[in-house]
Amino acid sequence: MSTADPEAKSKLRKGLFGFAYQFHYLLDNLTVFENCLASCFGKNNRSIQKILKDLEIAHIKDKFPSNISGGERQRASIARALAAKPKILILDEPTGNLDQANSSIIQDFILNYASKNRSLVIYATHDISFAKRADKMLKISDKGLV
């Protein structure tokens, strides 16, 4: 891979990886639905609608990030990460800004997505119950990997 040209590397990253950060990083001038479309170049329209429904945010698809709650932004960020159907999903505190009910919805959705799509999900969390649901758990402390 180190010898591949930048365009080939970019295509690989776009098609293989999905990212959702602790801060949502949604594009403010796009609606929730448009943010998801942008991540998969306008493809997967039906798939995006299903993801939004499953994450219980279909009702905000036409709203801009500034007009939705922090928890809705977090779920929209996860929807955007999943829109291109990545094989590797990397999530930073995906449930950190959510109440318990929405946290459970997200946890179930993420783990079901991984199972159904035979995808690898790597997530950082402070939620011990969510961490224990992973196939493998690595703990990081001040001293490094424990």
Biggest β-sheet, characterized? Answer: 3 strands, parallel
Mean pLDDT: 85
- Give the CATH superfamily: P-loop containing nucleotide triphosphate hydrolases
* Helix content bin: 40-55%
Specify the oligomeric state: single chain
Low-confidence stretches: none
Q: Please give the count of helices.
A: 6
Q: Could you please describe the fold and organization of this structure?
A:
This protein has one domain: Rossmann fold. It is 44% helix and 12% strand. The chain is globular. Strand 2 (88-92), helix 5 and strand 3 form a beta-alpha-beta unit. The protein is built from six helices and five strands; from the N terminus they run H-E-H-H-H-E-H-E-H-E-E. It has 146 residues and is of the alpha/beta class. Strands 1-2-3 form a three-stranded parallel β-sheet. A two-stranded antiparallel sheet has the order 4-5. The longest helix is centred in the last third of the chain and has 18 residues, at 100-117.
